[in-house]
Amino acid sequence: MKARRLLPGFLAVLMLASAAIGGATVVSAQEQGVTVSVESSTEEPVVGETVTFNVTVTNQEGGNGVVDVSSIMLRTNQEHYERVEDIGSLAPGGSLTVQMTSTFEEAGQKNLKAHVSAERAAGGNLRAYYSPVTVDVQELDINGGLSATTNNSDETTVSFTNYGNVELSDIEITASVDDAVRDRRDAFDVDPNEADSVTFDTGEYGTDSVTFMAAYTARGDRHETTRTVTLDQEVAGEIRLTGIDVTGSGSATSIDGEAANVGGTDVESVLVSIPDTDGISPSGGSGEYFVGSVDASEFATFELTANIESDTVPIEIAYIVDNERVTLTQTIDVSSVNTTTGTAGQNQPEATSTGTGQDPPGLPILPIVVGLLVIVSLGGAGFYLWNRE
């Protein structure tokens, strides 16, 4: 009975002795008037990226005297990443922040602790205070991309986008035609999921296809990406003769049709004409026709008349587009009109006869009729005698 009474007291003495012998006691960040907090510069760092951790230690108001902070560690249960010693002392109500950095060489979630060792200046025991922090380390992704758009001013805007998870710097973009660099531009540094743009005057390149190449730096290494684009440039206005109808009247040939604008911009001062050359001469002042202005994708009619002795006739087309005068020639086939075909007014051969106004000589009609009647009569008589027998 006496032994049972002594057992609780013995256990209490044993626990006090263990606490005294064990050295630093681990307590939470909110006990004994001392608090610890930690914040990371990013929750999703990339492998190899430097991450900053701000660890703050506070000696709460009303605490029991000054607290000496011996060391701060950044660690997991298995690894130590950073350690700072001889931090300093904190009076009641005071706090201090220590900045610690670390990098991670493998991807994955890291459950860290800010481990603070501190003791009371007036003969206290060394205690451990801690605060947890978690970071999710990402695999390295270096990925720069290009896109391009062309406006009506023959300017091409090229955008460089950072699709990866690290900053891209020292960006230079070049424009090439047939492997020859025509121009180059520098872009600003681009953070992940951001973009920067530069503009090229591609209207002077004289081509519909341009290759853009971006060279950039990521984590100290140089990288490149290219993109070949077809420029969406506006097609200048152009007049072409369509719907041609060629007709002839006597020695003159009439050419009617449409002056069609097959381009993408308006044209002005359109004039179509037939030149005065060998075998071709304008007829009655109708060798030229002023069409005027023709809007994009529209047309206007014209009519020309000329004396033409050949199978083709060149028609000259002159107009103004984008403040420049253009002159070209389109050849028209008129061979169908020059083919000889009898027309009213031309002399045609007439039928002639050599008789005297009577029926022309031929077979004797009367003897033939009499002979046929005799043959029919003889046939009928023979058939009658045959039947009598």
Automatic annotation (TrEMBL):
Source organism, top-level taxon: Archaea
Polar residues: compositionally biased ranges: 338-357
Residue spans crossing the bilayer: 365-386
Sorted UniProt keywords: Membrane, Transmembrane, Transmembrane helix
InterPro entries: CARDB (IPR011635), Ig-like_fold (IPR013783)
Keyword Cell membrane attributed: no
Full protein name: CARDB domain-containing protein
Native species: Halorubrum laminariae
